[in-house]
Amino acid sequence: xxxxxxxxxxxxxxxxxxxxxxxxxxxxxxxxxxxxxxxxxxxxxxxxxxxxxxxxxxxxxxxxxxxxxxxxxxxxxxxxxxxxxxxxxxxxxxxxxxxxxxxxxxxxxxxxxxxxxxxxxxxxxxxxxxxxxxxxxxxxxxxxxxxxxxxxxxxxxxxxxxxxxxxxxxxxxxxxxxxxxxxxxxxxxxxxxxxxxxxxxxxxxxxxxxxxxxxxxxxxxxxxxxxxxxxxxxxxxxxxxxxxxxxxxxxxxxxxxxxxxxxxxxxxxxxxxxxxxxxxxxxxxxxxxxxxxxx
Length: 295
Prior knowledge:
- By secondary structure, this protein is mainly alpha-helical.
- The protein has 17 helices and no strands.
- The chain has helices at about 1-10, 15-20, 25-30, 35-50, 55-70, 70-85, 90-105, 110-120, 130-140, 145-155, 165-175, 180-190, 200-215, 220-230, 240-250, 255-265, 275-295.
- The longest helix is centred in the last third of the chain and has 20 residues, at about 275-295.
């Protein structure tokens, strides 16, 4: 009965909560008796070092005990140990084996790791079609990085037939979970019109969020200037376009410097000023020269 209680606690509590709720000696007794959940908890805790002294070798010992009994979270953790963990010799081939065991049971994070290993050729021969297959399973299981990776493969036609609709679909799924890397790709696709005109306001919203997190990014500043200038996803506004174009130009964005010179020459969003127009034109030409020939 006490063993059942331990198992139920392991399912519903974090490792830290679990250790507080159950006496450590009891967990150790169960682990020594072969309880896979208790072994997993000890392995996790010895690796993290929150309630027990950090000890990588002991962490691996208990985690491997649990994984050898087929406890899926431990199989995933062993794959992670072999691939990434500090203080433990990395073995991508072993990592692939452990991930495969968990992935075949439907463990979404392990499926995503297999997708990455097949994509990169790490621990297994590179196979983009197989990578896409595992990313698909993981993405359908809700893993944000797999959704991002699958979107990337559809965007570029890697391992799957190129498909903008599918790429946008999976990037949106990943963005909805807060995966920031997907936001840039999704924005670019929508800004380029690959989601149709109806998606332009979404592109503007994404760019606004990106700028809020990284306000000095000259590429984002230039994109915002262009959206205001061309009225893409937002009402055309030359004054706002000038504001962002000047910020990007001051951050040495070459295209922004060329466009800013034109705005001064033609009085778009600012009073005409040929002196400043020439200033920014010369700055752009000089920066382009040094960019081309090297600093």
